[in-house]
Write a structure and sequence with these properties.
86% of the residues lie in helices and 0% in strands. By secondary structure, it is mainly α. The chain has one domain. Helix 1 (2-27) packs antiparallel against helix 2 (30-55).
Length: 85
């Protein structure tokens, strides 16, 4: 059951990233770009979580799976704070 939840979270994050980035390409609203990149980082985090917990459970990938999420949130924070018009 946990594998299914991990996979659904990853798929949802990928879908959000794709939809946000498609919206950015259509409207060129910068907030959509930063939000899409954030969700891409969260999607990578979820994929690495699935790999960490189900594919190679003997190896601790907690640092490596946290880095994409940190990068994604940092990009969103940058977009929210410094990209104001």
């Amino acid at each position: 059951m946990a594998t299914l939840v991990y996979a659904l979270c990853a798929l949802t994050s990928v879908a959000c990233a794709v939809l946000l980035l498609r919206g950015y390409l259509h409207s060129r609203a910068r907030l959509l770009l930063w939000s899409g990149l954030c969700f891409a980082g969260l999607a990578a985090n979820n994929v690495l979580l699935l790999i960490d917990k189900r594919v190679v459970p003997t190896v601790d990938l907690s640092l490596w799976r946290s880095l994409p999420a940190l990068l994604g949130v940092a990009l969103l924070l940058y977009g929210l704070v410094w990209e104001t018009r």
